[in-house]
Amino acid sequence: MLNPKYVLENAEVIIKKTKARGLDISLNDFKKLSQEKKNHLTKTENLRFERNKASHRVAQMKKEGKDASSIISKMKKVSDEIKSLEEKLKEIEEEIRKVLLAIPNVPHDSVPEGQSSEQNVEVRKFGKTPKFSFPI
């Protein structure tokens, strides 16, 4: 499986190299899912930050003897939202994983282009080629 960061940074190279192997792939789904993951991650982190900030505020209010129940109820809603975002994030990550598993490895630049083994180039031979009395 290819690294997601590598796929994002080298999408055009991957498409070109896989076409040289006779495969036609599209990375649009991967790009869309990656952007969606990034957005969900940002939302989740912002909500966590807000929850942590409110937690400090609640502690401060309790020290001062003030009522913090309204903040606590809001933060319960925020916690529920964080949980749902995290579940969605796991689903997105699983979809990304499935897409990445479908992308073949990229051949090295020295590999000749070709649709089948007929286009392979013999680089070197080792030893003698055996001769058989039957057709191969």
Describe the protein:
- This protein is an all-alpha fold.
- The protein has a single domain (4-119), classed as Helix Hairpins (Orthogonal Bundle), CATH 1.10.287.40.
- Helices cover 63% and strands 0% of the residues.
- It contains four helices and no strands.
- Helix 3 packs antiparallel against helix 4 (69-102).
- The longest helix is centred in the middle third of the chain and has 36 residues, at 28-63.
- It is rod-shaped.
- The mean pLDDT is 91.
List the helices and strands and how they pair.
Blueprint: H1 4-9, H2 11-20, H3 28-63, H4 69-102
Helix pairs in contact: 3-4
Structure at a glance:
With 136 residues, the chain is mainly alpha-helical.
